[in-house]
TrEMBL record:
<dbReference type="InterPro" id="IPR010435">
    <property type="entry name" value="C5a/SBT2-like_Fn3"/>
</dbReference>
<dbReference type="GO" id="GO:0004252">
    <property type="term" value="F:serine-type endopeptidase activity"/>
</dbReference>
<dbReference type="GO" id="GO:0016020">
    <property type="term" value="C:membrane"/>
</dbReference>
<dbReference type="Pfam" id="PF02225">
    <property type="entry name" value="PA"/>
</dbReference>
<dbReference type="InterPro" id="IPR046450">
    <property type="entry name" value="PA_dom_sf"/>
</dbReference>
<dbReference type="GO" id="GO:0006508">
    <property type="term" value="P:proteolysis"/>
</dbReference>
<dbReference type="InterPro" id="IPR000209">
    <property type="entry name" value="Peptidase_S8/S53_dom"/>
</dbReference>
<dbReference type="InterPro" id="IPR023828">
    <property type="entry name" value="Peptidase_S8_Ser-AS"/>
</dbReference>
<dbReference type="Pfam" id="PF00082">
    <property type="entry name" value="Peptidase_S8"/>
</dbReference>
<dbReference type="InterPro" id="IPR036852">
    <property type="entry name" value="Peptidase_S8/S53_dom_sf"/>
</dbReference>
<dbReference type="InterPro" id="IPR022398">
    <property type="entry name" value="Peptidase_S8_His-AS"/>
</dbReference>
<dbReference type="InterPro" id="IPR003137">
    <property type="entry name" value="PA_domain"/>
</dbReference>
<dbReference type="Pfam" id="PF06280">
    <property type="entry name" value="fn3_5"/>
</dbReference>
<protein>
    <recommendedName>
        <fullName>Subtilisin-like protease</fullName>
    </recommendedName>
</protein>
<feature type="domain" description="Peptidase S8/S53">
    <location>
        <begin position="220"/>
        <end position="638"/>
    </location>
</feature>
<feature type="active site" description="Charge relay system">
    <location>
        <position position="229"/>
    </location>
</feature>
<keyword id="KW-0378">Hydrolase</keyword>
Amino acid sequence: MRIAVFRTRRAFIPLGVIYALTAALLELSGLPSDILSLSVADAQRISDSVKNVKVFGPSPLTSLKEDDLLAFSLADDPSSPLSSTSASPVIRVAGANDRVVLGAYWIDFVSGFDQHDRFSQWVQSQEPGQILIRHEFWGEPLNAISLEFKDTAMLKEIVGLFPEIKLVEPVAVYSKPKTMSIFMDNIHAFMSTREKDLSNVTPHKETGVAQVHESLKLFGKGIKVGIIDSGTDYKNPALGGCFGKGCKVAYGYDFVGDDGKSPDNDPRSTCDGHGTHVSGIIAANSTYFLGVAPQSTLGSYRVFPCVGSAPNDIIIKALLRAAEDGMDVINLSLGGPGGWNQEREALVIDMLSEKLGILVVAAAGNEGDMGAFEMGSPGVSRSAISVSSNENPYSSSWYFVASNSSKVTTGLDQNQPRKIPFLGDKVMDLNTTLAQIAPGISGNVTADACKPTTKDIKGKIVLVRRGDCTFAQKLKNMMKAKATGVIIINNLVGEPATSVSKSGLKIPVRSISREDGEFLLKQMQSQSKNGGIRIADGPSPITVKNTVGGLLSNFTSLGPDSELNLKPDITAPGGNIWSTFPLSMGGFGSDSGTSMASPYIAGCAALFLQGRPKSEHNSVAFKTALQNAARPILDGNPQRFNGPASVLQQGAGLVQMMEVLTSSVSISPSYVSLNDTLHLNGRQTFTITNLGKNPVTYRVDLLSAVGLTPFERNGTVAVLPKKTFATASMKSASSVQTIRVDPGSNATLDLDFSGPKNNPLLHVLYSGFIRFRPEKLDKSTPMISVPFLGMKGDYKTVAVFDRSFGLR
């Protein structure tokens, strides 16, 4: 019996558990022991039809020694649970830390099983309340049903009665995306503080969307965009103010209701702003804010309740409903652990894309602090456009000012006070003074507030530096000391920390930049003899320049997928994005996350479909156009790495919609996954197609990006992968570095790649761009950069097992 290999977030453990350990694994699997009691010598049969049943459960890692384990590759195992030809069923059991719906299971049948009525009738013949049919997905690509059991022992009977079953696994859930929000109290206060043309609050100039609006007069008219999210407050005037035929939000369905159990036909949600914010990025149309495709029509499909997660069977249901409603584009600003493009959500996306031509866009994820290989499902789908995030050059933010507490109480009548933007809680009791835990003003203080303090901070707001322990630990210690609020000073130069997690702790928290934090610490030191300093909030948001604007967001997840395929695909603005919120939350506000970058590309998809009506409308054509036109983003440390950031972070680079719609040249493939250097896809053939009226000549060269070392020397995953120089090599198979393409024709070029000289035992992920540089640069013949990715070393020597990283 073979046990599947799973990826771990923290450690890579050689696996392939030998047969003699099977019984120990099964005892911890969670299903009744009579189902799972299989021995090496004489396995207890459930029935003749399942005599070869394979059970995958939580692994007792602490009891296994490395000498007892034998690594193997899942891809090489023809009997793996991902193989559609497997003749025996596989049962997967949820571990304690798995994100699943308790008691709910998928039952997958072999391809061609058509006795759906017989199965449904058997389920209905059971005692009332024993089995609940959640959702049915008969036919390709799933041929599956999701059920909820009062007693999971019934799985034994089902597997015995239906030999056509090939897989049983829990219904997984996706957590609601976490973002950092800045809400506003009213629209008019916002408008009184900034320009009428909104040029600084949207990133449309940097992406070419502004030029598409102004020059090409494209706004997404006639294109339907489906949004699978937490619902939409369509009563916001910027989103049309109504729902149904003739409205901007013309389609939709609520699969969950506020309580998660009350579906209905109205997708409006006011308890959560995520879906409304996403909707506005795509299609808001008002004098206050303009989305990417403001004339597009929306479908809103609610899968998140007010509190809780979204099961993957409901997400699939929403995907199919959006397709049924005729959506041209579907946005998924959600995701979860996965990494394998065989996940069921990914298979459904592939089907919708390949058979119906729907363009599906998905967030890359916000696990930038978890290291490489963090691309999750459904973004790992071959057909989905996976989107990473870069920072908006400008943002709108609430702010506060500091004052000498002995002289000024409001903080608003000083001469040009320093305005300190913040993220986090708008409501904080400011009727007190500031305090600090660690002494001094240096930003290099370590372990600030990581241990309980003996300082008297009761009733005060505390300045705490970020780093060395979790936010929750710092906040818990401050709560024990009875502080009334905490202001987190970022430990990195740039913006406030955008990922402060309160972990359910009820204490107001704000996040500010390192520079502003050092300013406050200096003020506190100079005013210590005058009673200290206080802070007071400004009356309305301000527009501020983002000091890391244009760079990749530090929260954006790193690729590649679990099989070394290049992901993410493209980058769009996702840091500090202003858009719509429910009216009950003020109507407008800022959010940060790849949840914001994904709808930006979904809006671009609407512009693409409208602006190129004679082109092929499928995911391959759209991805090719996006990646060919993208602009590589530089690394955030130009003093050491004077070149592009890793392709693992940015894909092909920042979207450039004007070039997408005006270029007459395309190059395919638009990205290259080289695999590892022991199994190198070294020979790559590129096809250059010229649809223009004049011949074009391109010179080809290679630009290496920053290399990343994904693992620590002890084998654990590097939370912050070390940057390194990793220079790949490329040469033309014909020794020709230029290629000419006549109008209305295409030409091919063979290029041979070899990996860098880094130590293969470090498994460095190297990447870069193959640059096709035209002799004459203009809007119809731009420079095209094709991203590539590879690993130095042998990936198959890294076997992994992790119950937290997806069920597969």
